[in-house]
């Protein structure tokens, strides 16, 4: 689907979008390629678009529970080191630690933006 009214993330950052029927996405720009995941962390429910983008492969890490999700597949791929709050969030949500984030294909063509399920 073509989406309008969104701002593309600057290189090596993550931003939040609301598209279509109120679907919320965390969209990352890694080396000029765009990746989309569901906006809420499958593990703790916090906003992935406020998270950290790490590289090789590109991953979006939740700022609360620190779970890292592969930006292409949505698969959880470890955790980044966290603080006391992050440790509590991980312990409280241990039963959801293997949940996969829904991934989206984000494509930019001639200044038009398209999003579809991966």
Q: What's the helix and strand layout?
A:
Elements: E1 2-3, E2 13-19, E3 23-30, E4 33-38, E5 52-54, E6 59-61, E7 67-70, E8 76-79, H1 84-92, E9 103-109, E10 112-117
Antiparallel strand pairs: 1-10, 2-3, 3-4, 4-9, 5-6, 6-7, 7-8, 9-10
- Find the CATH superfamily: Rieske [2Fe-2S] iron-sulphur domain
Shape: globular
Give the helix level as a range of percent. under 10%
The count of helical stretches stands at: 1
CATH topology: Rieske Iron-sulfur Protein
How do the strands line up in the largest sheet? 1-10-9-4-3-2
Distance between the termini: 12 Å
Uncertain parts: none
In total, the number of strands is 10
Strand content: 35-45%
H/E series, N to C? EEEEEEEEHEE
Oligomer: single chain
How many separate domains make up the residues?
A: 1
Biggest sheet statistics: 6 strands, antiparallel
Helix/strand/pairing class, anyone? Answer: mainly beta
Average pLDDT, to the nearest integer?
88
Query: Over the alpha carbons, how many angstroms does the gyration radius reach?
Result: 14 Å
CATH architecture: 3-layer Sandwich
GO molecular function, one term: 2 iron, 2 sulfur cluster binding
Which labels suit this protein?
4-stranded antiparallel beta sheet; 8% helix; Rieske Iron-sulfur Protein; 6-stranded antiparallel beta sheet; single chain; 118 residues
Write up this protein.
The protein has one domain (2-117): Rieske Iron-sulfur Protein. 8% of the residues lie in helices and 42% in strands. It is built from one helix and ten strands, in the order E-E-E-E-E-E-E-E-H-E-E. The chain has a six-stranded antiparallel beta sheet, with no helix packed on it. A four-stranded antiparallel beta sheet has the order 5-6-7-8, with no helix packed on it. The radius of gyration is 14 Å and the shape is globular. The two termini are 12 Å apart.
């Amino acid at each position: 689907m073509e989406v309008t009214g969104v701002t593309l993330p600057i290189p090596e950052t993550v931003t939040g979008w609301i598209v279509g029927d109120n679907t919320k996405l965390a969209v990352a720009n890694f080396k000029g390629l765009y990746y989309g995941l569901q906006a809420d962390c499958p593990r703790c429910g916090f906003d992935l678009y406020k998270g950290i983008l790490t590289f090789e492969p590109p991953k979006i890490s939740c700022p609360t529970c620190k779970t890292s999700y592969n930006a292409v597949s949505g698969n959880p791929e470890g955790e980044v080191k966290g603080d006391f709050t992050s440790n509590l969030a991980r312990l409280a949500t241990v039963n959801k630690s293997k949940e996969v984030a829904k991934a989206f294909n984000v494509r930019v063509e001639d200044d038009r933006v398209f999003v579809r399920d991966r």
